[in-house]
Structure prediction request, 425 residues.
Amino acid sequence: MSAMINHVTDDSFAAAVEQATGLVLVDFWAEWCGPCRAIAPILEDLAKSNEGRVQIAKLDVDANQRTGMRFNVRSIPTLLFFKDGKLVDSVIGLTQKTALQERINKHAAHAA
Amino acid sequence: MSKLDLIIVGGGPAGLCAAMYAGRGMLNAVLLERGIPGGELLNTEKIEDYPGFESILGQDLAARMTEHAKKFGADIRMENVEGIWKQPDGGFKVTTSNGETYHAPTVIITAGGTPTKLGVSGEAEYAGKGVSYCAVCDGAFFKGETIAVIGGGDAAVEEADYLTRYAAKVYLIHRRHEFRASKVVQERALSNPKIEVIWNKKVLDLTGEVIGLKTVNLEDTVTGERSALSVTGCFVFIGFTPNSGLVRDHVAHDATGYLVTDDRMMTSIPGLFAAGDLRVQLTRQVTTAVGDATTAAIAVEKYLTDLKTGVRA
Ligand SMILES: Cc1cc2nc3c(=O)[nH]c(=O)nc-3n(C[C@H](O)[C@H](O)[C@H](O)COP(=O)(O)OP(=O)(O)OC[C@H]3O[C@@H](n4cnc5c(N)ncnc54)[C@H](O)[C@@H]3O)c2cc1C
Prediction:
């Protein structure tokens, strides 16, 4: 697993995501989810190629049910984009890298 | 990359089986799959009708088929295919979302289908926020809640039953007054106290709030009367639409888009073969998908030999 990806939990979510500045992308995932495994290497690539523009975090929904319920996650992978701690966008399901890069560009541009 | 003999588009049971045979036949092949290999097996809990496996988890069978194909040298790449194009030389070009282009004299398309949408307002808006097409994938997010299942075939009735493991209540909504599902499946669902069947109703639209789905709005197909159900989930099982649109040239298909083949699985375009769920056939199962793929892979070998020896110009 890449060092660039931050694993967050119900307990660390507020500090790591909601009190962070800049753009944070949180991947809600679980071990048993096929599309989550498919999107994982895409997110690792994006974390590397967008270093300094976006922080990528992962939250295991099985081990951390409170946060998923709070954001009404009903399908995984769900990717939530937070800017300066505020939820600004979401992407649900296996999504290609180019489409995710476009979303990052959209929100990171405003952050600058 | 050395010159390819074959491109397989889609890594479900059919694609994985074709890749295994292609490997055994020493063909230089690639398999392009947009996600994790396994196809619909990954959206299925248990498979209980695949010979030799009395009962196996869909994802376990998917992993075994993937390993088996790799053991014989399958080159599986994560690529989302955008189009399959016939080339002037009789071969094919396959383009992907990563901007890659693959060329080969033969293609086997095994891209399966996509769940048919209701086509009502709110459906896209609440996809992943209450609207789902896969019980095994999303069911666990509805623990103790009230949800709706739409449809009347085997899939709808079976999945309604499965979803009662999580949901407190499941409305099974069908636009007719009887199910198409098989008797065994129906009996199990109808005797499940958590399922309430709602006959003769079609979905008008889906409404909710930013956070997610709240209401399924219905219309009676006989009286026209309108009603509404408060639910947090709506699972839609009203059929599949074949992913045959990837073929960008004219190819023979039936009225619903399923590809027509000959008994060697070749489509109306020479060198383009089809196997599994996207092919016109009586039933769509794992066994038929791998059967088709076996025939297709062997037919590809024969086709390539004929090309080399000039039997086929
Ligand atoms: C809920 C459910 C339960 C089922 N239960 C059973 C059962 O008990 N027994 C049984 O025998 N059958 C069952 N089936 C049917 C069985 O799963 C299918 O018949 C079988 O998976 C068909 O295999 P396939 O390879 O043709 O297509 P699929 O399994 O659909 O595989 C197609 C693959 O192509 C990929 N693909 C599609 N488009 C592209 C693209 N543009 N680029 C790259 N890749 C692409 C997809 O990601 C997918 O992996 C069930 C199906 C469902 C949905």
Summary: Strands of chain A lie at 5-7, 23-29, 54-60, 78-83, 86-92. The first strand of chain A starts at residue 5 and ends at 7.
